[in-house]
Amino acid sequence: MVELCGLELAHPIINGSGTFDAIAARRAFGEQLLERFPFAAFVSKTVTLTPREGNPPPRLWELAGGLINSIGLPNKGLAGFLAEDLPQLAELPVPVIVNVMGFSRQEVAELVQACSARPEVAALELNVSCPNVETGLVMGADPDELARLLARVRPLTDKPLIVKLTPNASDVVAVARAAQDAGASALSLINTLRGMALDPRSGEPWLGGVTGGVSGPAVRAVALAQVHAVCGAVQLPVIGMGGVQRGRDALDLIRAGARAVAVGTESFRDPAAGDRVAAELELLSASADGAQLVSPQPF
Amino acid sequence: MTAPLGRRGARITARERYGAYVVLRCADADGPTPAAGQFYMLSCAAGWGGGEGERPFLPRAFSVLRACPASAPLELEFLVEDVGPGTRRLSELLPGEELLLTGPFGAGFRPPHRGRRPLLVGGGVGLAPLAIWQDQLGPDTTALLGFRDAMHAPGAELMSAPRVATEDGSAGHRGLVTELLAAELEADPQAEVYACGPPAMLEAIRALCAELELPAQLALESGMACGFGACFGCVVPTREGYVRLCLEGPVLDAHLLETAAVAGAGH
User: Fold this and answer.
1) Which residues of B touch A47 (CB under 8 A)?
2) Which residues of B are less than 8 Å from A73 in CB distance?
3) Portions of chain B given CATH number 3.40.50.80
4) CATH class entry, domain B8-105
5) Do the chains contact at A60 and B231, CB–CB below 8 Å?
6) What is the tens place of the pLDDT at every residue in A14-72?
7) In 3D, which of A176, A177, A253 has the Cα closest to residue A222?
8) pTM beyond cutoff 0.90
9) Which of A180, A240, A296, B46 pairs as cysteine with A258 (C-beta 3.0–4.6 A)?
10) Distance in angstroms (rounded) separating the CA atoms of residues B14 and A209
11) Comma-separated ranges of CATH 2.40.30.10 domains in chain B
12) Are B194 and B121 in contact (CB under 8 A)?
């Protein structure tokens, strides 16, 4: 069992927001999804106040060891999510964490208040990787901006508020400290790194959204460094993520200080990846010295 | 039947070459029998990565070419054309080696409306879902297949008595398969068209069927990371907004589409 800001998790492996749609997966895999749900908690795709169609395709570009996605946060909006999706997510055998994003503090406040009021919601995660339209600052890239956001929304709920940090910030540790000082319950990192690809024929941006987020094993070392730095600077529990494919990758993040670990892109390749990573991690952790199972292979 | 949860191994039992194409046959001991038009996400157990640009990384979506439920275990066939690092690696697989797969996913072909004669139209590697559909509809079902050239035309051997068009005239009608289709529809307007192929071909078929007010079911392709609705990468624009091709398709009713020329296929 793992305790994560009051949530009791059967194991440390959860999903990264936007990398697993439990409702769609139930259509594809049927009731076995509930019988062997691959994660110890379910984090929803980002919910915004109003519905979003998402970015025009193409939305994906494959990289060495990963991909760039430019999805653009398509979702039904708060009302649609609460009415249609949340009751279905409540049937999952694990706690539900709802990820929300607003384009102003007022929008985030409305999202937090409405989601928090629902008993199906165990915790909230704030996606702060977007600009505040009122200040032009990315909420999670500036410590003061994030502190003002949390000052507005922290009093609105007693439920855990997890802040998902963006790696596209000049000083992630400063942002993490600001989140802790302003009352965040936990931190999750890393979100995707901004990247882009050009169509080799035209030289124009390939992705409909021009730039996108890089994920997969290509970002794993960056994630480990950021989790290590943040865990050294704050006392809050941290959910580490970025390129986790195996139990060993999860163990690395835990050794760097993470309380829980999210699997994201790897679930695209294997829908049961969360389950497998959890099992591998348990094996590694059960040996008196996990290091014995893995010899260093520097070259 | 839903897909098993998780990626599973499937041993390659046969590999046959048809000109530019390779047909991979594998034993899928744990999977259900797929419906015609459904697809799988394929990768290789070994050597997935390290190709051009250090790719592939993601699995690749393939409509099932043929399923042999009578064999035990169930055998599946996939049609592969080497057009990039993922298809290259897959096309190199040899009998005894292991394929990794998830699926079957998505919505396949629906039976023709009452009184309508099914008419199958394929372009290149897009013949795959039409072969399994012809297996179910019967070998007399009319099939029109278009290929680029003599290297690709041997793909026609995978279907029963198809009429063939090649762009270079090396086999069958010289020109586009849509020309064969137009002639066919003129002779028999009581058709229901089932098509799969490159975006320009599908768009020509969509426009033709819209003009003649004929029902058409189009099997589309889109760049896809997962196959089960997680990544939201495979959306195509429809009259009802973006839909995830992996969930609502890959077979879509043509009247849902303003265009079948989907951006981003085939990266």
Assistant:
1) none
2) none
3) 117-256
4) mainly beta
5) yes
6) 999 999 999 999 999 999 999 999 999 999 999 999 999 999 999 999 999 999 999 99
7) A253
8) yes
9) A240
10) 42
11) 8-105
12) yes
